[in-house]
Amino acid sequence: MTDLTLSRRFPVPPERLFEWVTRPERILKWWGPEGMTVPESDIDFTRTGPWSSVMANAEGQRFKVSGHVTHVDPPRSVGFTWAWHDESDRRGDESHVTLTVTAAPEGAQLTIDHRDLAADTAEHEAGWTSTLNKLTALLDT
């Protein structure tokens, strides 16, 4: 098992950043790597419970991921389990993600801590980095 930690600063107050990483209407604007859309989702990180999303690329490939929101501590952190589904909709190995928001000079910092990854972290690192690029584009305007 391997772990991945990424951080990025944003020019917004911590409370506003926390809204962007927990509220469904905000998450869907940046969820998934660049070039991906989210045609199906049940994402609400404002409360504990199940969640899921389907991401699609320009070629029409669909990628389903689901989990359970394990904790919500506004405006500091939200944690959830994460597992990709295969073509038969069977869940794969489960890992855990914690999104932590802290105050930073001139704004807030978001730290993504993705733990217990069964595979090499390179693919997850690329995906989360690309996803953060989308959030940056929205919040740097």
Describe it:
The protein has 141 residues and is of the alpha+beta class. 23% of the residues lie in helices and 45% in strands. The chain has a 7-stranded antiparallel sheet. A hairpin with a 3-residue loop joins strand 4 and strand 5 (77-84). This is SRPBCC domain-containing protein. Residues 12-139 form the Activator of Hsp90 ATPase homologue 1/2-like C-terminal domain. Belongs to the AHA1 family. It holds the Pfam family AHSA1.
Structural class by helix and strand composition = alpha+beta
Percent of residues in β-strands:
over 45%
Residues in helix, % = 10-25%
Order of helices and strands: EHHEEEEEEH
Q: Which value, in Å, is the CA radius of gyration? A: 14 Å
Strand order of the largest sheet: 1-7-6-5-4-3-2
CATH class: Alpha Beta
Q: What's the overall geometry?
A: globular
Mean pLDDT: 95
Instruction: Identify the CATH homologous superfamily.
Output: START domain
Low-confidence stretches: none
CATH fold assignment: Alpha-D-Glucose-1,6-Bisphosphate, Chain A, domain 4
Number of helices: 3
Largest sheet: 7 strands, antiparallel
**Amino-to-carboxy terminus distance:** 38 Å
Number of strands: 7
